[in-house]
Amino acid sequence: MVSLLGQLNNNELCSFSIEYDEPGDAAIELKIYAFFLIFTRTLSPEHLNEAIQCANRWNESLGIDNPDRLRRCQIVDEMITLRTHFRDFQEQYRALFSRNDRFKQTKSIDDLDRAVEVAETYSNAPDNSNRADCFFMLSILLGKRFKITGLPHDLNRAIKAGDNVIENMRQDHPQRHVYLNDIGCRLAERFQLSAGLQLEDFNRAVDMLNTAIDATPDDDPHRATYFNNLGGLFGTWCSRGGTIDDLNRAIDMANVAIDDTSRSPTVRASYFSNLSALLRRRSHMTGSTEDLDRAVELAEMAVAVTPECHPNKAIVLSILGNAFERRFRRAGSIGDLDSSVDAAIRALDAIPEKYPTRTDFLSCFGLRLAMRFERSGAIDDSDLSIAVLDTAVASMPEDYVAKAGCFQNFAHSLHRALEFAEMAIDATPQGDRNRESQFGIRGSLLEMRYQRTGSPEDLDAALSLYKEGWNSHIAPPFRRIYQADRAAAILASQSNWKESSQLLKEALDLLPALSPRSLKHTDKQHMLERSAGLASVAAATYLNAEGVESEEIAYNALRFLELGRGIIAGLLMDMRVDVSDLKRKYPLLADEFESLRDQLDSPIDEDTYRSFDEVSSSWESRVKRRREAEDKFNQVLKTIRTKPEFCNFLLPPTRDELMAAADPDPIVVINLSSYRCDALLVQHNQIRMLKLPRLTLAEARKWARDLRLAHQADITPMLEYLWNAVCRPCLDTLGFRTERDSSDNRRVWWIPTGVLSQLPLHAAGLYSPGSKDTVLDRVMSSYASSIKALIRGRPQCSKSLAPSPTARALLIAMETTPGKGALEFAEREVAMLSQLCPDLKLQPIRPAPRKADVLEHLDNCNIFHFAGHGMSDPQEPSRSTLLLDDWQTNSLTVGDLRDYKVQENRPFLGYLSACSTGSNQIEGLVDEAVHLIGALQLAGFRHVVGTLWEVSDSHCVEVTKVLYETLRSEGLTDIAVCRGLHLAVKKLRDEAVEREGWWRDAEGVDRERSCYWVPYVHFGV
After folding, report:
1. Prediction pTM value
2. Contacts for 40 with CB less than 8 Å, ≥ 6 apart
3. How many CB atoms lie within 10 A of CB 387?
């Protein structure tokens, strides 16, 4: 029965002690034990008095010679002695709390110092039977003083007092779990601030906090706090030397605390703030906008429920400011930057002037003012930033523990930047993950000074810092890649191509870590944008390092480009790959692969819950499930690759696979970099490299910029440049030197890199009288984002599509679009196509032009033809959209189409007769094919026809007519799509020439109208 009482919670135990009224000595003793057990848990003197009174009544009826009398009297005596000690303890605590309460009211360090002195006096008294409790109070007060002063001496003394608590505390002390938690927190703080990893402090802190959790009943409200503290400790470990798995574990623990809704609002505010800081850190490592938005939301809630006079007000405001600052760095919203400045001002208002820790808040405030000055140019922000940072430096104690972070903030501003950057490195312990970022800051500043002074010492120092940052294996991958990229650039400037190439090769291997499958596609884009062009630079550097031409070298350069480009599309293609062969031989393995890929390939929906606690729980559970699914998915991939027939399953293409992809049509991969430009020519029997000395990155950027600024201006100089610099050398080398015969199927697959993918290689040529020196006259052209994309798409393709009796053509005509100009030819285009459908053995379907209706029919169509407005988003290409009736409230975007999977039906053709459906204006993402054409390909369409920029409404009808008439004549074959578009574009060009003459010699020709045939492109398999 006694053991059963120990299993009851406090409320059940209180009910038992009141209601239990069984007769007999054993029943009375059980009741005494219940009262005493409540006292040991709660330190309630009332329950101890009840136990003593009950014991006295228990002894009254007992005879003097009863053999049990001595035992019962000893029980009473021990409880009375305990009550005496407890009263002494209460008196001592009253004295301590009076000093502590005075400090809370005045926030005077003098009052806190006096409280420490009183606690020390009681703790060191030799006859004090409550020494453990007094040492605990001393540890708390010293911990408070450390948070104010930032002086390590106070923290070390607090930990020493904690050790004295353990030494003097009984194993059955009722508050043992409380004391262990607090001591663990002090050790965690010292671990966070110590030089090196200091595993002893970390391991002791983990043991203390885990023991505290194990010793706490499930219904005890302290338990949530202990989980919160343990989560914070693992978050610190992640920043020092741990992995993303450690950070995920920390977030899981913090969520346990969040789930406890029984605590007071101010206590829960600390849980919100801790989880906010952890999510902000994870967002920084992974690029997750979901984590970052949740971090802001949690921090705002923490600030809202924390009273203005609460001692933690400055801390919760600081965490809110950090979250807003990180989101500004991620998305660039000036509103977030303003909010981070406001939070810094409010945090400073909550910190007394004399507190040394005010330095940290000043440094954050000064940094954000400097950031706002850089963004807005407001001179007041610049002046105030300098004044604030100078004040922070002047007020910083010599042994201030947080000075590394302050110096890093100073270095981010332009005021005395190099000096502070060096001080930040010196103040940051070895093994700290933040040390690597400080290498990058100082390296960048030294490079800037080198640009002004030309000092080779500055450049060598920057190179050394970047190398050290790259070799910091605990740093996040994106930072290491940045350091390698900068170091490689300096080495290249010194013509040290070998070492530069090796660095970039190793950095390329880290690129997949920037875009885990569990991350949202837009977050993958953000992370990969930071490393834009890395593959092209790596390939160019490698070619310079080798210095000779051979098939082996050309193949290796091509591998770099295949590894480092189209990463997001590659991940999606991997997950949507046909596994019919695997299913035939290893059905259980195929089923597991499909189950996990379906989890990872499903879009991440927004939560619609009303309650914050429901939203938080659902969101983190979903993130955790996707993370676990990715881990299992990678394990399944390893298992599949152990099977002899599948050893290359979803690995980059081999040399033989690359050459097989070029049978029968050659593939031209054009690498664009600032070091050199080359074409890698892939044919069915060889891979060759061709130098392109007339092609330069600067010139390509100029033409791409000119196109964005004036899409339909005279582009003949650009077409001539592309011919001379790129297309003619490639076609001549491939043997395509003469005009193509009308019955000839010769075709070239163009795979341009970088900004070259925004230019019309298929239209390049010399447009002078009688000239046949054009791509259109020599070959048919198709485009692909990578050779991998061609290989992945082809196994599912047959040479022709035999339409079933239910084959359908989904036709959308947007003659009028809300908020946009009318397209009078859109309906005529679709009506013409509708009449052709019977000859194509297709049933025309024309649903309401709304997003939901279009997606519903997209799943079971063979052809999707859209005639209307397309809109390219210059800031976020995933938001580029096809404009339907409801586009203003529910647009059909790249993201929607990319997430929509129609692989099982494998539609034959998506025809986007709209403006800019192949446009992506963000240079950092041009290698990722984030546009409407690419989205339809990833959704599962075998062929997609689209446009690079704006097109003429009337000429769209002509292109459509010729292409579909070609399909009617030749059947729905792969080559017929390419030939149909080629014939349509060539017909428009020839008509323009016949009507207006060759452009170079024509007078009065409206060249803006003469180039309407150029933007049409074909992507396919």
Report:
1. 0.73
2. 172, 174
3. 13
